[in-house]
Amino acid sequence: MEPGNMDFDTNGWMWDGVYYYPHLFGGIMLTAALLGLSTSFFGGISVTNLPYFLPDLGMFHKKKSGKKHVRVYMDGCFDLMHYGHANALRQAKALGDELVVGVVSDEEIIANKGPPVLSMEERLVLVSGLKWVDEVIDNAPYAITEEFMNRLFNEHKIDYIIHGDDPCLLPDGTDAYALAKKAGRYKQIKRTEGVSSTDIVGRILASAKDMKVYEGHEGSSLHGEPHNLNSIQGEESCANGGHISHFLPTSRRIVQFSNGGKGPGPNSRVVYIDGAFDLFHAGHVEILKSARKLGDFLLVGIHSDQIVSEQRGTHHPIMHLHERSLSVLACRYVDEVIIGAPWEVTRDMITTFNISLVVHGTVAESNHFWNGKADPYEVPKSLGMFQMLESPKNITTTLVAQRIMANHEIYEKRNAKKEASERKYYEERKYVSGD
């Protein structure tokens, strides 16, 4: 109901008064008692006479309306989705009551940016899996045309269109959100520092060059050790893939992504799943969704950079521990994460977190039978609380990286252009309030 509209209920005005204004109504009844009037007197007053008897109590005519329900819209390609995308949508949701997200079509991405890494179906799974997203519009246009803007306002009841403080320019150099700004229905949020899809592609390409994984043989992968281990001793691990991460993790950001400190109840069935969750993708979302269905509380262990590097090779992970943790925390199926979880699920872990079931997906990165390490699930298996979980998708971090490497020339060219514009943005950007 719009603020200011009156909804007069001819049969329930008195009970509305009791419900919404108990103190005031009680005062009226007490005054009546002091004057010697029976409280039943009020039951005999006709509703039509009420405005004349209590001219200042027009509030009884109005049922609880509250403030207007605000719906906000934000769109994007959401290719190689990361915690920066998630944080943008979190900020957008904070500007309204419901968040509707438009996912740009493959065709529009190709026309404006080049080929996407992830398919529309995979990008929809990722966006729908975020805890702040209420509705998704697929095949959204790259530019907010007048026709599409009117569709948002009229069909989807959108109040405001949201975008980050970084410019979004069309190929002709015009502002993609000019119409929304002109209509006075545009709001701006703060871009998340230290990450972008361009940056992630750069990390993968740099890693691939060092690992020499796209030199001509089919089925190449990012697994295994580099050709010359001595050449990289002492360098940073490939949590940066040759590109230094500029992400500055803060305690507040972790709190913003968390579920308000809500832990499992004493009788909750806690399900535990662990992994690297590098380059968070649709396969991760689907396996977490399946795991959550097996209990009341899903606890996710995020392996440390060191553990991932030992298992997958020196140039892994692509995203470092805090980046991977935020991506997992943003998933609507996740209740809590262990940041830097140990390799083995110990008896003490099971007791500490009151774990009822430990699961592992059937589709995972090849790890050469855990690379000589002990079976990490030996204890839960011995306790009869381990279960292999059928993975709904066969996508892996390696497969995502291979898509980029297969078209590395295209992505290198695109990245060179994007990196230049991003450098310019960081050089010229000013402080934007909100986070």
TrEMBL record:
Gene Ontology CC entries for this record: cytoplasm
A biological process term (GO) from this entry: phosphatidylethanolamine biosynthetic process
Transmembrane segments: 20-53
Enzyme class: transferase
EC nos: 2.7.7.14
Reaction catalyzed: phosphoethanolamine + CTP + H(+) = CDP-ethanolamine + diphosphate
Transcription listed as a keyword: no
Residue ranges of every copy of the Cytidyltransferase-like domain listed in the record: 73-202, 272-400
PANTHER family linked: ETHANOLAMINE-PHOSPHATE CYTIDYLYLTRANSFERASE
Name of the protein in question: Ethanolamine-phosphate cytidylyltransferase
Source organism: Rhododendron griersonianum
